[in-house]
Design a protein that fits this description.
4% of the residues lie in helices and 40% in strands. It is mainly beta. It has a 4-stranded antiparallel sheet with strand order 2-3-4-5, with no helix packed on it. Strands 1-7-6 form a 3-stranded antiparallel sheet, with no helix packed on it. The termini are close together.
């Protein structure tokens, strides 16, 4: 499975990513007071989402019905099933932002 690498040492930072032949800009932030991460999403210079919280097992932008958003689901998950939360200690260690590609989703 493919996943998006989050460079925690660079936070807050932004990076470009192509998903299904569409270019997106992700900006990752960390709230050290409450130990969680958020993502801002931009496409073609337009901010689509500000402060989307990374929630374990929940697809990013799952509640948005808008064609401008990524067509490929992105889910914070731990394949080893040792973690069930997205925190500083788990993201990039056991929890990764997995891309649910069509052929993988079909089984």
């Amino acid at each position: 499975m493919e996943y998006i690498e989050v460079e925690k040492d660079l936070i807050p930072y932004r990076f470009e990513l192509s998903l299904a032949d569409e270019a997106f800009t992700f900006e990752v932030h960390y709230n050290s007071s409450y130990d969680f991460f958020t993502v801002d999403l931009t496409k073609d210079g337009e901010t689509l989402v500000f402060g989307e919280k990374l929630v374990y097992g929940q697809t990013l932008f799952y509640d948005v019905q808008d064609n401008r958003f990524p067509k490929i689901p992105i889910v914070p998950f731990d394949l080893s099933e040792h973690s069930s939360v997205v925190t500083w200690g788990t993201l990039g260690v056991s929890v990764f932002l997995y891309l649910l590609l069509e052929d993988e989703a079909d089984g």
